[in-house]
Each structure stands twice: as structure tokens, then as C-alpha cells.
Write a structure and sequence with these properties.
This protein has 24 helices and 13 strands. By secondary structure, it is α/β, with parallel strands linked by helices. The strands form three sheets. Strands 1-2-13-12-10-11 form a six-stranded mixed β-sheet, with helices on both faces. Strand 5, helix 8 and strand 6 form a beta-alpha-beta unit. Helix 8 crosses helix 13 and helix 14 packs across helix 21. The structure holds 6-O-phosphono-beta-D-fructofuranose. The site of 6-O-phosphono-beta-D-fructofuranose (F6P) has 14 residues, from loops.
Length: 560
């Protein structure tokens, strides 16, 4: 297969040519895993090194990472960092930050980091300044959101906007939805920000429930402005609004768009002044810090949004400037590679001990799995190793009473990321103490377990000893921050973005394309047409044909 043309500098090419499994560090890691690492127990590692709990920790951009409860020795860490170097991680980080076209299959630069770079920094891509246009959009967003927040932006009947509905899907929904939920504490209580993504009409109905159309603003978020689900919901919204207000001209006051395709948004009827642009070098799942975050800015205000950008920027700098050994995204990314490729762990669970971060795992799922769920290397060859694990998770405290049983005593290893805060957002210190105590207790129980000997010593009947024993040795990271602020959230978002990038560099995949979603989209166009017109012949496989026939037969239209 002809390798794709990339703009990687010659210094990087050698790293992309040798198969990952043939690299010296990889082979050494395999040997190290076989001979040592798979036999270690966290109990022994901690017993041998009284300082391990603080020695294996790192800090950056306000986030403290305790990675001591991982199945690693100093030798493991040395070898993982050696692998990162052999894969050219440093050079690839630089290539990303400087605007090289590292999204090779789409020949695009990857510059979400420029969205939060200081206004006085400079970066040129293809001879064009990137920073000034970013700042210009930010200023327009600031003005628009202030007008909405203060009620200066009248709706069609002159009343102020009090409800904002973001219509989008994937990266145009998950990021802002997660962040609005996470930062509700900082949001204007008078403004109600909701999200619609699903084409199940129930989603839209729920979103508009109880709302006055003349006080509702829709933000249609779509990078491409071609996404079937988003356009279908946007049309539904327009019909609802026009019907309620009885005038097409209302659309100009009640619709805004965030897109790179302003022509299509204009055709839809959205006024140019209400459009906020971004660029092809911002991937959908990396777009929260672009104008896609408009609903968040309306909710928490421009200052809050800028704090979030500052948090992301602080982590960007940490990632770019800190030695690999103390670099949070690098450590977390390399640990994921370690479990995924050597221990053959299939998934990674993310467990925020914060109700506000309930949606964070869903957001991470797209970030990680759309980025690294790939089977072809940047050179166009099939990979000979596993790529992204399945990311999943939920609020930690709730998880304790549902799926933690499997984490503690199941047969699979599931590395955990615990996320906690020193200070609560609410005036409920006892509740918060309970929350953090539970988080620490779970990480401790997973790591150290409870041996059969200890269970016996507690007087357990012999036939229950094995049921009540915990082998422990189950790895986890703990991320601890002072308080859930916009800055902290911004830093955490960038931490995971860069951890995912680190993994992609090691697996040598394009973390910024998503060809895997195309086939289903194309087939859905065909099946929609076939459901709409039952005279069309069905020429799919027998299963799909049977399902479509049943749907045609049983549809309300066919039955009436
Ligand atoms: O189908 C996947 C995807 O392209 C995501 O990558 C993206 O975040 C989402 O759809 C939405 O795309 P758009 O913002 O163009 O509507």
C-alpha cells in the first residue's frame, strides 16, 4: 500500500516506519511483563517502598495525579518512557502544536490548542495567522452571550431570551453538554440551557417542554452542517418556532449557528450575524473550546469560559514543556498502553466522585474511542496490536452500588481513573467528606484487597472464605483537584485530550479522523429512503430486508 503523504518533518518519519512490536522498548517491555511485572503485587510494591505513594505522583495545571497504585516498577516506567521516545512522542507533540498536518488521512492540521492560546501568542499555518481569527470569534461570542445573559437580545416579540437549546450531536453536543452540567454551579440561574441530539422525537419534545417559543434561542452546532440528525432536529425546531410565533422572520432572532459551513447555515435561514465560525483544524470531539462552547459561555459567562480556556492552556503548556517522566498526559497515556497491550485489559473506567461530572465519561467515550478505535497505521498498514480500550464510567459513588462488584472480584482487569476534589461546591462538608472517603477507600480496596488469611482471621466460615476474599492488585489512578472550577475542568479536558493523543502516537494511528462512522451514515440514507417509499425494492441481506419489511408493515401509516 502506498503510504499517505504526510507533512511530518523528516525527523519524525523513521519513528513511523518500524512496526511498533519490533521496537526495542516494546520487546523489552514484553520481556519485563513476562518475567516480572505480571507477578508483582501492589501489596509488595508498597511494602518495599514506604515513599511510593508520594514518589509516584505528579502535578500540573492544578491537577495532582497519584499513579502509585499502578502495576509498575521503576523499570516499567523507564521502559514506557523509552517506548514513548522511540515512537517520537516529543516530536509528534511539537508537530501538533506547530500546526503540521498530523491528521494525515484528511491532510489537516490539529490545532485545538490554538483555541486557548493567549491572545498575544503567534502561530501561522500555511502562511496565515491562526490566533487573531480565534480571538475575533471569542470576542463576538462574548458580546453575543452577554447580550443574551443581560436580556439585551430581544426575541421576536421583544421579550428577553431565557431558554437556550443547543442542537448538535457527537462533538457538537457531548462537550458542551458535559461542561454545562459540570459547571451548573457557576451558571446564571435565570437562564435555562438544554441539549437536543437524538432524532428520537422524544428528545426534542422533552427539551421544549414548558418553554415559551418567544423566549427560546436555538444554537445549531454542526461543524459540517450536513449531519442528518442535527439538521432534522433544527428543522423541527424551526417549524415549532414559526408555528408558535406565526412568522418566518422570527427565525433570525431565535436561531444561531456554530459551524465551518456558513453557506449551508445561511441557506437554512440563519442570519450571518448570528453565526460563529471555526476551522477544519478543530476536530469535532476536540471542539468544546471553540465556538461549539457557545452554550457554555451563555450559561457561565465570558469570564468563566475564559477561565476554562486558561485551564486547558495551562495543561497544554504542561504537556508541551514538562519532561515525559513528570508529564501527566504522558504518564496516563503510557499507563493505558501498558494495560491495553501487555495485560490485555479491554476497558478503562472513569469514576468521577462528583455529581457534576456525571456526563464526563460519556464525553470521554467519543474523545478516546473515535480517536483511537482504529486498525490501520499512519503508514496504511494493518496494526498488529490492540488499539483503544473501551472507555466507560459513571458517577463513582453510584457505581459502587452497581458495577464495582466486577471491578473488585470479576475476572477482568479494569484499570480505573478516580476523580475527586478537596473542596465541595455546596455547603455540605459532611457529604463531601463521605464522598472523598469513599473514593479513597475504593482505590485502597482495589489495590490491596483482603487476603483469605485476613478473612479467616475475622472468623468467616471456611466455605465463605473464597467468596469474601479480595485478591486486590487492581490498578488505578487518582486525580485530585482543589475544587471543580471552570479552570479545573478545562485542565482536565486537555489532560484527557493529550493522554488520548499520546496513546495514538504509540499505536501510530491517525487520532483525528473518523472514517469508521461513514458506512453506517451512507447505509442509513438508503434505508431511510426505503422506509419512506415502500415501493422501493429491498436488496439487502435477508436480516436487514426482514427488519425493513416488518417496519414498513407495522408503521402507523401502513396500519391506518
Ligand atoms: O459522525 C461522527 C461525527 O462526525 C463526529 O466526529 C462529530 O463530532 C459529529 O459527527 C457531529 O458532526 P457535525 O458537528 O459536523 O454535525
Amino acid at each position: 500500500m502506498t503510504p499517505l503523504r504526510t507533512s511530518f518533518s523528516p525527523a519524525i518519519i523513521p519513528f513511523t516506519q518500524i512496526d511498533l512490536t519490533q521496537k526495542t522498548a516494546w520487546k523489552l517491555l514484553e520481556q519485563h511483563y513476562r518475567q516480572q511485572a505480571r507477578h508483582v503485587h501492589l501489596r509488595d510494591l508498597f511494602a518495599q517502598d514506604a515513599g511510593r505513594g508520594t514518589r509516584l505522583s505528579a502535578e500540573g495545571a492544578g491537577i495532582y495525579l497519584d499513579y502509585s497504585k499502578n502495576l509498575v516498577t521503576d523499570q516499567t516506567l523507564r521502559l514506557l518512557m523509552r517506548l514513548a521516545r522511540e515512537c517520537g512522542l516529543r516530536q509528534r507533540i511539537e508537530a501538533m502544536f506547530s500546526g503540521d498536518r498530523i491528521n494525515a488521512t484528511e491532510q489537516r492540521a490539529v490545532l485545538h490548542t490554538a483555541l486557548r492560546a493567549p491572545a498575544n501568542s503567534s502561530l501561522r499555518v500555511d502562511g496565515k495567522d491562526v490566533i487573531a481569527p480565534v480571538q475575533k470569534v471569542l470576542q463576538r461570542m462574548g458580546k453575543f452571550s452577554a447580550q443574551i445573559r443581560t436580556g439585551e437580545w430581544p426575541g421576536f416579540t421583544g421579550k428577553p431570551i431565557r431558554h437556550v437549546i443547543n442542537i448538535g450531536i457527537g462533538g457538537s453536543d457531548l462537550g458542551p453538554m458535559m461542561a454545562v452540567e459540570a459547571l451548573r454551579h457557576y451558571a446564571d440561574a435565570e437562564l435555562d440551557v438544554r441539549f437536543v441530539s437524538d432524532v428520537d422525537g422524544a428528545d426534542f419534545e422533552q427539551a421544549i417542554h414548558g418553554l415559551a417559543a418567544d423566549q427560546t434561542l436555538f444554537i445549531v452546532c454542526s461543524k459540517t452542517f450536513t449531519t442528518m440528525e442535527t439538521l432534522s432536529n433544527a428543522r423541527l425546531a424551526r417549524d415549532w418556532l414559526v408555528q408558535a410565533l406565526g412568522d418566518e422572520r422570527a427565525v433570525a432572532r431565535h436561531f444561531s449557528a456554530v459551524t465551518t459551513n456558513t453557506a449551508a447555515a445561511g441557506k437554512f435561514g440563519i442570519a450571518r450575524d448570528n453565526m460563529f465560525g471555526f476551522w477544519d483544524w478543530v476536530g469535532g470531539r476536540y471542539s468544546l473550546t471553540s465556538a461549539i462552547g457557545l452554550s457554555l459561555m451563555i450559561a457561565i459567562g465570558e469570564d468563566g469560559f475564559r477561565d476554562l480556556l486558561a485551564g486547558s492552556h495551562a495543561m497544554d503548556r504542561h504537556f508541551r514543556e514538562t519532561p515525559l517522566e513528570q508529564n501527566l498526559p504522558v504518564l496516563m497515556g503510557m499507563l493505558t498502553v501498558w494495560y491495553n497491550n501487555f495485560f490485555q485489559a479491554h476497558s478503562q473506567v472513569v469514576l468521577p466522585y462528583s455529581r457534576s461530572l456525571k456526563k464526563f465519561p460519556a464525553y470521554l467515550q467519543q474523545l478516546a474511542m473515535e480517536s483511537n478505535g482504529k486498525q490501520t497505521t499512519l503508514d496504511g498498514a494493518p496494526v498488529s496490536y490492540q488499539t483503544s480500550p473501551v472507555y466507560w464510567g459513571d458517577s463513582g459513588i453510584n457505581g459502587q452500588h452497581s458495577f464495582y462488584q466486577l471491578l473488585h472480584q470479576g475476572t477482568r482487569m479494569v484499570p480505573c481513573d478516580f476523580i475527586g476534589f478537596c473542596e465541595p461546591l455546596t455547603r455540605t462538608p459532611e457529604q463531601h467528606q463521605l464522598l472523598m472517603a469513599s473514593m479513597c477507600a475504593q482505590a485502597e480496596a482495589l489495590a490491596f484487597g483482603k487476603s483469605a488469611q485476613e478473612v479467616r482471621a475475622a472468623g468467616t466460615p471456611e466455605e465463605l472464605v473464597s467468596h469474601r476474599s479480595f485478591e486486590g492488585n487492581r490498578p488505578s489512578n487518582t486525580l485530585l483537584m482543589q475544587r471543580l472550577t471552570p479552570h479545573a475542568l478545562g485542565a482536565m479536558i486537555a489532560l484527557y485530550e493529550h493522554s488520548v493523543f499520546t496513546q495514538g502516537v504509540i499505536w501510530n494511528v491517525d487520532s483525528f479522523d473518523q472514517w469508521g462512522v461513514e458506512l453506517g451514515k451512507a447505509l442509513a440514507k438508503r434505508t431511510s429512503a426505503e422506509l419512506a417509499d415502500s415501493s422501493l425494492p429491498l436488496t439487502h441481506d435477508s436480516s436487514t430486508n426482514a427488519l425493513l419489511k416488518r417496519l414498513r408493515r407495522q408503521s402507523p401509516a401502513a396500519r391506518s
